């Protein structure tokens, strides 16, 4: 009973102490200058308990965290930092800075740095035990699990980063001295020495950007780190894990290109490490960074592509926790994205496994997001061959973009992206692809930040199979657009109009009839002189296609406007031509300028006096448009229309460019019409 009472008393005391420290932190945060008289005493209090023997045996973890947060907030506080021009700084700022400078002397900073590294950075017995008993959980927690976020380790690392950044000139020699003392191999039987080296390497990784000019990382990698990666002894695994993490920290700071093949080889070997923590740590800490920095040099990557992809896939099957699988999928996605079509021979196993993983992750939406991202890159890599994935792919898109299904909250953004790339790479419109569009009506009603992707998807359907698509969905789509245009931004309005313009481009006969309810507002916008140039340009593009490609429908539309506006036909036509000529400069795209000129020129054969009166204006803008599209042929010295295309012209794709998608090819074919 006395022990329980003592524990209860201790708990109450700890809660009271934490409450007081929280009040102190809130006071500093809200009233930094009022806190100035307390800076000296607060720093003395926190440093003495956390970084000297005074706190040994009496401090507890939450108290240490609060003290470190107090030190960090004082060090980083912008109110205490003078301007570069001292005269621009307030007296309060200078006073606070003076107190800070007086406290953080060289001995104090050196002791804080050494104690952070050699005491707080050390792996604890509990962490080492967790490593042995549940390596995957250890890796997940150590790299950002929920409990990790509120534990001591991240707090110490953040404090180290902030203090090192603030006082790097003082602390750089201290840290370099610690590194130099650890040169050469470490006795694997000396656990303490292994853990100290792990902690020092951790510090060098955290301070990578500050040490840029002080550490020759390339030489260090060649002369020591690479050799340490090859030490296979079980007790050396903390160093293997830390070294590959350290490389991940430095790879974007300083690393020569001629070392890349050696690094790839090391990564491949580590993927076969028998210790799961080392394998996973390699993935989490370095691979994505390495691939983002180095995969652009695909010559090196292709040498290791098959073995790396196979080993990554094996690891994906081996690990069990969602967080770990997400990391592995992220790396696989990076590889697929960088090598694009070159991945095709190696993805069979992944394609077979993903449906099973999707089913197993029914309760884990974040893992499903990672699967969606992998599928996006997979579809882009497979191109038209991605149609073989449709039995799995299309139900995934259906679920992810169905707003009546609860998972859409997590999956919608990636699901829309997957839907779009699937359409862009589809060789033809299938009934199943057509059926998924039933989800679009509800998505348009959301009017969310995903609206832009929705319009891209609609455009992709238009180019993929306009006749079948429009016959099934044009009426619903037109109603949705009419509702959207009542309350939408200018950018959204342009996106809607571009869909209509593409429909008219692909299907000039049926398009105007199917979107007829939208066209009077376009006509009215032209004759009333729409004030936003980008909207006016789109209006003129739409009306130009109607006039040029479907003159009969234009006549019907003109008659409808006579009824709606209660004006004479010639007056309406004259106003439209006059405004068109006057606002031609709103059109910046050469294609639209040429279209407008051709549309207005198509009116000239008419004997209508109103059109004849506008002859000079029409000819003037036509000549301007002609100048815009004419370029000199360097071989013949003659001028030609740069927008004329031939069926025999094949697009030239350089090594750095991605090959054209199926949609790119469809758009080009439309341009031939």
TrEMBL record:
GO BP term (any one): protein import into nucleus
Ranges for domain Importin-7/11-like TPR repeats: 369-670
Subunit and interaction comment: Interacts with UBE2E3 and RPL12.
Pfam families: TPR_IPO11 (PF25758)
Entry protein name: Importin-11
Family (UniProt): Belongs to the importin beta family.
Alphabetically ordered keywords of this record: Acetylation, Cytoplasm, Nucleus, Phosphoprotein, Protein transport, Repeat, Transport
Organism: Urocolius indicus (Red-faced mousebird)
Region annotation (Disordered) ranges: 650-673
Listed transmembrane segments: none
């Amino acid at each position: 009973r006395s022990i329980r009472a003592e524990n209860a008393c201790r708990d109450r005391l700890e809660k009271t102490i934490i409450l007081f420290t929280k009040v102190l932190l809130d006071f500093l945060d809200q009233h930094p200058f009022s806190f100035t008289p307390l800076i000296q005493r607060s720093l003395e209090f926190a440093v003495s308990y956390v970084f000297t023997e005074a706190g040994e045996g009496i401090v507890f973890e939450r108290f240490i965290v609060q003290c470190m947060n107090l030190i960090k907030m004082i060090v980083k506080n912008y109110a205490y930092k003078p301007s570069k021009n001292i005269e621009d700084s307030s007296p309060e700022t200078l006073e606070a800075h003076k107190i800070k400078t007086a406290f953080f002397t060289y001995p104090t900073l050196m002791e804080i740095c050494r104690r952070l590294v050699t005491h707080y950075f050390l792996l604890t017995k509990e962490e080492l035990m967790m490593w042995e008993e549940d390596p995957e959980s250890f890796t997940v927690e150590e790299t950002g699990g929920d409990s990790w976020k509120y534990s001591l380790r991240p707090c110490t690392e953040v404090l180290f980063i902030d203090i090192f950044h603030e006082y790097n000139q003082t602390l750089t020699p201290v840290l370099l001295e610690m590194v130099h003392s650890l040169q050469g191999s470490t006795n694997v039987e000396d656990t303490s020495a292994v853990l100290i080296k792990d902690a020092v390497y951790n510090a060098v990784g955290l301070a990578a950007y500050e040490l840029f000019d002080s550490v020759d990382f390339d030489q260090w990698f060649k002369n020591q780190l690479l050799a340490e990666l090859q030490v296979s002894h079980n007790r050396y695994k903390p160093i293997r894990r830390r070294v590959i993490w350290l490389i991940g920290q430095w790879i974007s700071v300083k690393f020569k290109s001629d070392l890349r093949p050696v690094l790839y080889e090391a990564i491949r070997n580590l993927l076969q490490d028998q210790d799961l923590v080392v394998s996973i740590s390699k993935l989490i800490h370095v691979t994505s960074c390495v691939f983002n920095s180095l995969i652009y040099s695909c010559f090196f990557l292709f040498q290791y592509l098959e073995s790396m992809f196979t080993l990554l896939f094996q690891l994906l099957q081996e690990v069990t926790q969602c967080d770990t699988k997400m990391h592995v999928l992220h790396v696989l996605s990076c590889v697929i994205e960088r090598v694009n079509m070159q991945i095709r021979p190696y993805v069979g196993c992944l394609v077979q496994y993903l449906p099973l993983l999707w089913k197993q992750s029914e309760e884990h939406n974040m893992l499903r997001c990672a699967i969606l991202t992998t599928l996006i890159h997979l579809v882009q890599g497979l191109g038209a061959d991605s149609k073989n994935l449709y039995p799995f792919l299309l139900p995934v898109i259906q679920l992810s973009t169905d707003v009546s299904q609860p998972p859409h909250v997590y999956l919608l953004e990636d699901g829309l992206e997957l839907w779009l790339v699937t359409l862009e790479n589809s060789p033809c419109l299938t009934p199943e692809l057509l059926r998924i569009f039933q989800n679009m009506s509800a998505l348009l009603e959301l009017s969310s930040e995903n609206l832009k992707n929705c319009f891209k998807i609609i455009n992709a359907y238009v180019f993929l199979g306009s006749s079948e698509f429009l016959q099934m969905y044009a009426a619903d789509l037109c109603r949705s657009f009419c509702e959207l245009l009542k309350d939408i931004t200018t950018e959204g309005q342009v996106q809607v109009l571009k869909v209509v313009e593409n429909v008219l481009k692909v299907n000039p006969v049926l398009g105007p009839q199917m979107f007829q309810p939208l066209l009077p507002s376009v006509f009215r916008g032209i004759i009333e002189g729409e004030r936003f140039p980008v909207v006016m340009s789109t209006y003129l593009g739409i009306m130009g296609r109607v006039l040029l490609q479907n003159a009969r429908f234009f006549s019907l539309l003109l008659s409808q406007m006579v009824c709606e506006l209660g004006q004479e036909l010639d007056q309406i036509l004259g106003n439209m031509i006059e405004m068109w000529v006057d606002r031609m400069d709103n059109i910046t795209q050469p294609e639209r300028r040429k279209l407008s000129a051709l549309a207005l020129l198509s009116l000239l054969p008419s004997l209508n006096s109103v059109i004849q009166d506008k002859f000079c204006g029409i000819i003037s803008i036509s000549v301007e448009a002609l100048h815009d599209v004419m370029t000199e042929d360097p071989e013949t010295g003659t001028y030609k229309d740069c927008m004329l295309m031939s069926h025999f012209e094949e697009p030239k794709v350089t090594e750095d460019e991605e090959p054209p998608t199926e949609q790119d090819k469809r758009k080009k074919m439309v341009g031939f019409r």
